[in-house]
Design goal:
Blueprint: E1 2-4, E2 10-11, E3 18-19, E4 21-23, H1 29-39, H2 44-56, E5 59-61
Antiparallel strand pairs: 1-4, 2-3, 4-5
């Protein structure tokens, strides 16, 4: 697993805004989740949804704004059009 903080020119797969790129092996999404958890507070249900997202997207770009504390996450329901 590589969590790269240098890809701020990447756009979020969910909302198409500039973001950090998380390179995640589907077999070890928990490591990426641990890193995201240091940026924002995740509930167990949020963590489960993000883990599923990583398992289905080997190299995902997700911005932390999708995981505000104590709110339902947006990543699996974002309907923003692709670039």
């Amino acid at each position: 697993l590589i969590v790269c903080l240098n890809h701020f020119d990447r756009v979020c797969d969910l909302c198409r805004q500039q973001s950090i790129r998380f390179y995640c092996s589907p077999s070890q999404p928990s490591q990426a989740l641990d890193f995201i958890g240091k940026l924002v507070e995740l509930t167990p249900s949020q963590r489960a949804k993000i883990e599923l997202y990583f398992k289905n997207n080997r190299s995902a770009v997700i911005c932390p704004r999708h995981f505000p504390p104590n709110k339902q996450p947006e990543p699996l329901t974002c309907n923003a059009p692709p670039n």
